[in-house]
């Protein structure tokens, strides 16, 4: 079996003839190690209702896999999450919580939790002045 990621055809012969179902097809995925993923930034320490909080995830030493981020309050409210791929194995994560209280941040790499996650963060009430605005459409992350 190959050790390089890709699609492979496997021939299994018995007495010079293919066994039933042979050749078989198999896909080998690149190895990844979620223990090598690191996260840092102020959004892992606290958040403020309605304000974008940020943190950075570095997967550059972990191999290739899918990054999944989930942020939800203990009451079940989901934060709005934006993931920006920097193209170098790092990601900028932005989230906006819509209610105060404790939130859990889950970071999975290849479907597996990374070190120190899930993590808890306290989202504080917003204490600024009241204003309103109208937003039409979606243009991606607002940093």
Automatic annotation (TrEMBL):
GO terms for biological process: actin cytoskeleton organization. Keywords: Repeat. Gene3D superfamilies: Immunoglobulins. Coiled coil: none annotated. PROSITE patterns: FILAMIN_REPEAT (PS50194). GO terms for molecular function: actin filament binding. Filamin repeats lie at residues 1-28, 29-123. It holds the Pfam family Filamin. Belongs to the filamin family. PANTHER family: FILAMIN-A, JITTERBUG, ISOFORM N. This is Uncharacterized protein. The lineage of its organism: Eukaryota, Metazoa, Chordata, Craniata, Vertebrata.
